[in-house]
Structures are given as C-alpha cells and as structure tokens.
Amino acid sequence: MQLCKVRLASGDIGVGALGDGQIHLFDLKGAVGIGALSVILHSEDPGGLARRYLANPGRVLALDDATLLAPIDSQEVWGAGVTYRRSQEARGRESVGAAQFYELVYSAPRPELFFKATARRVVGPGDSVHVRRDSHWTVPEPELALVISPQMQIVGYTIGNDMSARDIEGENPLYLPQAKVYDHSCALGPAITLQEDMPALSEITLRMCIERGGNIVFEGASSLGAMKRLPDELVGWLGRENSFPDGVVLLTGTGIVPPDEFTLNPGDAVSIHATGIGRLTNRVGPEALRK
Ligand code: DO4
Ligand code: MG
C-alpha cells in the first residue's frame, strides 16, 4: 500500500491510501493535520493499521481533486553520500584538492551521513525545488529515501531529490552544508510505499529525466543493486548516538550524475521515477517560499 498526504480544496490536510488514480482518505479521528502520517508510520504495525483504515475509508477523491504534499510530518531529513561509485568519481572531479576524501569515504566502514533538511525546507510533488542564487552549477540527485520510525525501523520508502550545489561543495568540502541545506533544497514524494509492499532492492531502478523548454536535456538511470551500502547498514550508523523521536527520512545517495557541464536552470522540470514507488516531478525555482 502507498500512503500519501494531501491538501484538500477546503485547505485541510488529510492522509490516505493512493491507488488507481484515487485517494482513499483515512478517517483518523482526532489525529488530523500536521502529524497525521506518523500516526500510521510510527505504529507497531503500519501495514495492518493502514489496512484497517482502508477498510473503512472516509472520502474517496480523484487525484486531481487534491494536492499531493511531501509525505513528511516533522521528521528531520538526512542524507548518505558517496554510496555509488559514480557519485565518488564525480565528486573527485569537482573537488580536486579533496578527491582523496571521497575515495576514502567510499571504502571506509563509516559512511558519510549529513543533515539535509527540516520538513519546512522540503517540497512535495509539483512544487518547485531551488537552485541557490549564489550557485552556477547545481544538479538534482535522485535517491531512494528510507522512511524510518523512532525505533529506527525502515517502515517505508519514497523518492528524494537531494539538490546539490556542485560548485559550492567543489570549492571546499567544508561548505557542504551550504551546498546541501537551503530553502526548497529537497523534494520528497509522491507517496510512501510501505516496507512490506516494496520490491527487493535489486529490482529497483531509479530513472531521472530533465526537460527544458519541452526538450529532454538529460536522462539517466541507476539500479539500487549498484549501491555500495545496504539500507540497514546506513540506518544503523545514523542511529548511533542519535535519536529521532519524530522519526527520520534518510536519502541513500545518488547513482545518477549528469555530465559535468550540465547545470539546472530555473524553469527546468525534473522527473524521477522509482520502481515500486512512482514518479516525483518538480519544476526548478527559485520562487518565494510557499509554506
Ligand atoms: O559528499 C557529498 C554528498 C554526497 C551525496 O549527496 C551523494 O552521493 O548523493
Ligand atoms: Mg545526494
């Protein structure tokens, strides 16, 4: 089953199951609004609870009658880096003086983990991701996102776009937080596929397509089978000496890197598809913060 978070025409926020172009809104009684998704995700049996809600849904809406929001409540978003050889090689090229550190972290037992975003900085399907105004070389990073409970269990999966200013990271790796963390720097969606309904990792392919003025200017794909580390391994490291009472979303790193001469432009459309999850499409801004 896929869980989604929506804004209704009334402005209310709801949670439901997404399927066949419809949203089956759940009647969550008192638990509406900002934390509603976590009521299910952080329960003892998310699949069982979701199925009970689905058996007795509130309204059924056509997809067009609601706005899909990023499937996140108040979780922090973290990122894992250099988990694919392609990412390590690209970063070695962009950060000539620091190339050895990317090679070292690719093969070290301890992964690179970094803070990526608060929920407020995350955008949902159809919303705009941003290129920083002080960056002239920014790319999208399509990544499998793990949805993790406060008990550090992977309860679901969604698609993440870890927008990255390659020029800022390349100038000096100590600028990583500025290359990665800014308003509209992360997109999540379109929905969360619950753990039990997700295909095996080896069967998952991520594809990204970037359109500019109606033309495709980049297309790429990567298989999750090419990831150097396993999701459970990354979650284990993330939970070391760190607790997440609101749960956490972990982006697992990118295996798709556009050519070095490519940068996003405002107006581009970035579309990311993942097996078992669906498609997340965002325009490139900047524009004023919506939330
Ligand atoms: O080392 C910087 C970040 C790497 C990253 O975001 C990735 O590999 O996806
Ligand atoms: Mg990344």
- Poorly predicted regions are none
Order of H and E elements:
EEEHHEEEHHEEEEEEEHHEEEHEEE
Number of helices: 7
Biggest sheet record: 12 strands, mixed
- Compute the separation of the termini in Å: 28 Å
Strand content: 35-45%
What's the average pLDDT?
94
- What structural class results from the helix and strand content? alpha+beta
Task: Please give the radius of gyration in angstroms.
Answer: 18 Å
Helicity level:
10-25%
What general form does the structure show? globular
Number of strands: 19
Distinct small molecules bound, one entry per kind = 2,5-dioxopentanoic acid, magnesium ion
Give a brief rundown of this model.
With 291 residues, this protein is of the alpha+beta class.
What does this structure look like?
This protein is an alpha+beta fold and 291 residues long. 19% of the residues lie in helices and 36% in strands. The chain is built from seven helices and 19 strands. It has helices at 36-41, 46-55, 85-94, 99-107, 166-171, 176-180, 231-238, and strands at 2-8, 13-19, 22-25, 60-62, 66-69, 76-81, 112-117, 122-123, 128-130, 138-139, 142-148, 154-162, 164-165, 186-194, 205-212, 215-223, 248-251, 269-274, 278-285. Strands 1, 2, 3, 4, 5, 6, 7, 8, 11, 12, 14 and 17 form a twelve-stranded mixed sheet that branches. A hairpin with a 4-residue loop joins strand 1 (2-8) and strand 2. The chain starts with a strand and ends in a 6-residue tail after the last strand. The model has no long low-confidence stretch (mean pLDDT 94). Bound molecules: 2,5-dioxopentanoic acid (DO4) and magnesium ion. 2,5-dioxopentanoic acid binds next to strand 6 and helix 3.
